[in-house]
Design brief:
six-stranded parallel β-sheet, 26% strand, alpha/beta, 22 strands
Length: 451
Amino acid sequence: MKIVLAGAGAVGTHLSKLLSREHQDCVLIDDDDERLSGLSEYDVMTYNAPPTSIKALKDVGVAHADLFVGVTPEESTNMNACILAHALGAKKTVARIDNYEYLSPDLKGFFKDLGIDSLIYPEVLAAADIVNGLKMSWVRQRWDVHDGALELLGIKLRDTAEILNRPLRELSGPDDPYHVVAIKRGGETIIPGGLDELHVNDLAYFMTTKEYLPYVRKIVGKEHYEDVKNVLIMGGGKTAVRAALTMPNNMNVKIIEKDLARCEKLNQLLAGSGAMVIHGDGRDLGILEEEGIRNMQGFVALTGNAEANILACLTAKKLGVTKTIAMVENLDYVSMAEGLDIGTIINKKTVAASHIFQMMLDAEVNNLRSLMVVDSDVVEFIAAEGSKVTKKPVKELGLPFGVTIGGLVRKNTGMLVNGNSQIQAGDCVMVFCHEQKLHNVEKFFKQNSLW
C-alpha cells in the first residue's frame, strides 16, 4: 500500500513510525526541514515542501496513493491538501480538523463530494476515551465492542484481588466468564498461558461480556471503589470542552483554568451543560481544597504540560480521588507515568493514529486501538466469507505468536472464544496483537484467503 502523509507534527510522526514498523511504502511531506530530519532513523521517505503544492504532490506520486492523510496543525491546509490529492488520483483521503461542526453525519456526503473521505478530530476522540474511563472508576483502560457486547478491561491488581498467585488454568477455563489476554508486569508484557499467574501490581487485561462485569469487579477486589459522580478537570482546552459536553448527566463537572480570557470563552462554550468554570491554577493545593477535591471521585489533568498533569494526578490520588486521568503527549513520559501509578493515561496522537491506521488495512475493520502501555494493538476484524479464520477451530488456525483472539460478537451477542471455537463469516472478532505486524494478522480475515 502506498501512503502519503502531510504534516510531520505529533500525529504524522507517530504514524510514520507505525508505518515504518509495518514496512509500508510511505512518504511524509512537510515544509519544515528540521521536523523531517528527526525521522531519518525510520524507513520513511521525506519530502520538504508545502503539503498543498501540486508539484510536490505529483512528485511524491500521490496519483498512485492508496491513502492520503492530512495531519498538519492547520485544518484548512489538511482539507485543501486532501481535495488536491483526491483530484490528482489518491484513492482515499483523511483530514485532521478542529471544527466540531464538520463531524455532523449530515455533512459526510458533502465532504465526500469534495474529495475528503474521512475527518478526524483528535480532541473529540480523546474526550470519548476520558468519558468512557470515568464511567468505571475501578478500571485503568476500557474498550467497548458493539455497545458493550464485549468488554476489554485493563485493571491494576492490588492485594485485595482474590485471583492472585494461582495458575490461570485454575482460574479461567474455556467455559469461564473472562479471559486474561495480556499482563503488564514492570517493563514486560506477557501473553499468558495456563501456567502463568497474576501478581500484585500487575496491569491485567481481561476480556469479558457485559453481564459478567460485576463478577470481574469482585474477583479483582474493586467492589469498594466509588462510582464517579463529581469530576474536576484541570485545563480548559478543546479536549476538556468536548469531555464536559459529553459527560453523563449523573456526573457533576468543574473545570479549573488559569487563563481568565479562556475562562470567559469556556463559559460561552459550556453554557447549558451544567459544568462550572473556575479561574485558578489547578496545581495550587489551596484551590483544589477550596473546590472540594476530597469529595471528588474523578480528576482529569488536561493541560499542555505532561509533567504538571502527572504531578497533579499524583496529588489528587494522595487526597483520596479514586479515578485519575492524565493527558501525556510526550510518549517518552508514558512508561514513567505508568510506573508512578497515576491512573489512566491519554495521548491524543496515538488515539488519532489508531483511527487512521485502521483505514490502511485491507480486511474489514470496525475499530483499532493502540495500547501504549503494553505495546499492543486491539483490532475488531470482521470475518469475511471464505476467510482463513472461518475454516478451522481457533486452536488449529496457526495464529502468529503474540496474537490472541479474546472474543467475538455474533448477531449483537458477545461471547468469549476458546481453542475449540469456530468463527463464522460476519462475526466481529476482537484480536489482541502484541509486537506483531497487523498485516500478518489481517490475512486470516480477508475474503477468499487460501491455505
